[in-house]
């Protein structure tokens, strides 16, 4: 007997065996990775909940904080000579004497090259004399003012010697490392481990604290 249909719902009987294979079809269960994080512990009297920040803090924030701090301290120690301006002043005195000797030697070589008419050698020795003059001028900046050498005096000397960019890049890198280290310390101190929430069934209270 054909009962026909009413709208989208059929009124025609269907045998159950038609869907039996579909009902018995196995569902593939995809294994999930164990997060290894005890989000919840429970016993007869107490239910404890917490977030996953515990593991992230101990395995990411703390190691990075320690590593960046050690690197920053190492850079401070390694670059301490860069900011010992009195040592730079003493070295400048030695370098001035050395370049004066080089200049005198180049002048002698230039005179010999001019006598021989060797234009290529003349150009080489003229460049040597110019470099010596520039170095003497740069190192002499340390002695323009009496008293201790300041940072700005040191930077003026480096600019004359063509070494200012290297000095500024070192300061920039040190500042970047210091900022990263400070940021990790602030994250460590201002955001401690997330509090565990305790549901105590015996005392009928919910309590928590940060640690």
TrEMBL record:
Transmembrane segments: 60-77, 167-190
Keywords of this entry: Membrane, Transmembrane, Transmembrane helix
Protein name as it appears in the record: Uncharacterized protein
Taxonomic source organism: Vibrio qingdaonensis
Organism taxonomic ancestry: Bacteria, Pseudomonadati, Pseudomonadota, Gammaproteobacteria, Vibrionales
